[in-house]
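Sample pair:
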Amino acid sequence: MIQLPEVIKNAVSALTKLPGVGEKTAFRMVLNMTHWKADELNLVGSSITSLKGLKLCTQCGMFSDEDICSICIDEHRISQKTMCIVENATDLMAIEKSGNYNGLYHILGGVLNPLLGIGPEELGMDVLKERIVHNEFINVILAINPSVEGDATCSYLKMILPQGIKIERIGFGVPIGGSLEFLDPMTITKALENRKNF
């Protein structure tokens, strides 16, 4: 069997760390990159290396070029007095893409999971509570995925947040174009729980 150069093996190994990229896909990528010009390789390499200096917004935890992101300094959003709490940055981006929300955010960075050692301290629940109280938020939307851990996280947040704040959880259920016969029991349960008057 042919022995490949270490540089190719190392590149393949590095690319397999990406989610959804197996060894075969990584190998095809590396073979494709062997035909790239040096400046193209340098551009990709330096772009990835520059991720080391990526900042997070000191208020919401979203990726940012500055200490505070463009969402958190937007006066219109601040005036809404509404916060949407999400698990991670991809959830925030999905909500922003919908174009139907114009308040502020807070990224937890996960959900409560005692088995993995993730408690309120690891998710900065005290900091979140202080931010909500200090900025006098009126509405809090819990956009946390439906799971045992997600439900526990929502229950904990509802318990620690001050009285008088309107706390809502986003609806879950049947997707547009979905068919009931193909849905899992949890999705159908959530759809029934979140039913509305018609």
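The chain has a mean pLDDT of 91.
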